[in-house]
Design goal:
79 residues; single chain; 48% helix; alpha+beta; two-stranded antiparallel sheet
């Protein structure tokens, strides 16, 4: 599932259509203390991320930002 759509409760495969229902791996570099965080995004969300950039995309998707902060918190053990 698309991480951004699943947080909002949107069925990403229906909104993208049958030809575009594949997921892409995207990486956030600057938004989380210079740590690389990988997310899976649908076609539409990947385009929005490309056009808006990391900060505006995460400002629009506040629930996704919160979920990523919780799952990849500053005190998470990282090798």
């Amino acid at each position: 599932m698309c991480d951004a759509c699943s947080v909002k409760g949107i069925n990403w495969s229906i909104s993208n259509g049958p030809g575009k229902s594949r997921l892409e791996t995207a990486k956030f570099y600057t938004s989380f203390d210079s740590r690389e965080i990988k997310v899976r995004l649908c076609y539409l969300c990947a385009i929005k991320l490309f056009i808006q950039g990391e900060e505006q995309f995460l400002d629009y998707n506040k629930a996704l930002r919160r979920e990523l902060e919780v799952s990849n918190g500053a005190n998470a053990f990282d090798w």
